[in-house]
Design a protein that fits this description.
Number of strands: 10
Number of helices: 3
CATH architecture: 3-Layer(aba) Sandwich
Radius of gyration: 18 Å
Strand order of the largest sheet: 3-6-7-10
Shape: globular
Helix content: 25-40%
Number of domains: 1
Order of helices and strands: EEHEEEEEEEHEH
Distance between the termini: 39 Å
Mean pLDDT: 86
CATH topology: Trna Endonuclease, Chain: A, domain 1
């Protein structure tokens, strides 16, 4: 199966609290938020329905990054941005990326990307799929290095969530509705 699965749930999200959504209220973007997976939908729903989430948006911050794969500068839009009133620590700003775990780079103790092992059966198809997976991981790592730097410079907390992380992440940050 390709890591670019087209069977993800996709669509436009219609917030119940449009005044909080930067995509809808026109503060930053005039296009409605689009989800590209059920995980993104869950995160949009979470941002929209939590009282302590002051404002949120989807793909509203653009970051330039250098891709090691093609040697070019590209634009990257972080999946989510939200601000939350933490009560005790004031307002915190988050930038969140949601990706399938197979597209998230694991790093060794020196910060180097750990790539998946090559396929045991070295057919042309299996080698191409492995190379595609390695390139996606490599590009994502380049994006996220640039995002971490941008977030640090702008006072944001950056996090990458996999499909396994979305549910536990929301419950760990379960603020009053």
């Amino acid at each position: 199966m390709s890591i670019f699965c087209k069977k993800y749930r996709q669509g436009i999200f219609y917030p119940k609290n449009p005044s909080k959504c930067l995509n809808v209220n026109g503060e930053i973007s005039a296009r409605p938020p689009e989800y590209r997976s059920s995980w993104e939908y869950k995160l949009m729903e979470w941002c929209d329905t939590r009282e302590r989430v002051i404002k949120w948006g989807s793909e509203i911050h653009k970051i330039e990054y250098y891709s090691e794969v093609d040697g070019k500068i590209h634009r990257y839009f972080i999946d989510f941005y939200y601000e939350i009133n933490t009560i005790h620590n004031g307002i915190k700003k988050y930038a969140i990326e949601v990706k399938p775990s197979c597209q998230i780079a694991r790093l060794d103790e020196n910060g180097m990307v750990i790539y998946p092992d090559p396929p045991k059966k070295k057919t042309q198809k299996s080698l191409l799929q492995w190379q595609e997976r390695c390139n996606v991981i490599r590009v994502n790592n380049c994006k996220w290095q640039a995002a971490r730097k941008w977030c640090q410079e702008n006072g944001y907390i950056f996090d990458v969530l996999s499909e396994e992380d979305v549910g536990s992440w929301a419950s760990q940050r379960n603020v009053n509705k």
